[in-house]
Amino acid sequence: MKAWIGAAFAAALALPVWAEVAPMGDDGLYKEPWMRDTFKDLREDLAEANDEGRRLVLFVEQRGCIYCHKMHEEVFSLPDVAAFIEENFFVVQINLHGDTEITDFDGESLSEKDAARKWRVLFTPNIIFLPEEVSEDSTAIEAAVAVMPGAFAKGTTLDMFTWVAEKRYELDNGEDFQRYHARRIQERDNGKFD
């Protein structure tokens, strides 16, 4: 009997432990503690991100999105993922169907839903990574260094955030994101890192 209880206890400890899912706001979107509540003037947000030594990233989400829920429940709630994002990124959340006013880099002011339409965002989650400098005639989607459309597991998500944080898109080494991600998968499989 004691062996069975010990085995059950050991099995319970081996199960993954998820952190709590972020609370949901009045707009029906999850509110991670590392998300910024700004006036959504992307030029100001970029300047503030740069002042903090972080990269500006836009999270486009929508109420009732099962894939957004999956990302918040299974990926963004993980302490190492949350810590990496908080340390390296300035995250502004955009509601795919929202009416809050946004000022794009080109100076145009429009609602969140019109900005999403302008940026050709059709699905959520959609994560738009911005460079440190954006010309005043560019839109967010034109300036993006990478876009992560859809829900992905921890490894892919961390690899994309790391690839952007390390500015690997600038490197002329022939290692685009897919090659970088494949190499990181192999390194994880070989026990180099988690």
UniProtKB/TrEMBL annotation:
Protein name (database record): Thioredoxin SoxW
Classification via CDD domains: SoxW
Organism of derivation: Salipiger bermudensis (strain DSM 26914 / JCM 13377 / KCTC 12554 / HTCC2601)
Residue ranges constituting the Thioredoxin-like fold domain according to the UniProt record: 50-133
Signal sequence region: 1-19
Keywords for this protein: Signal
UniProt-listed Pfam families: Thioredoxin_2
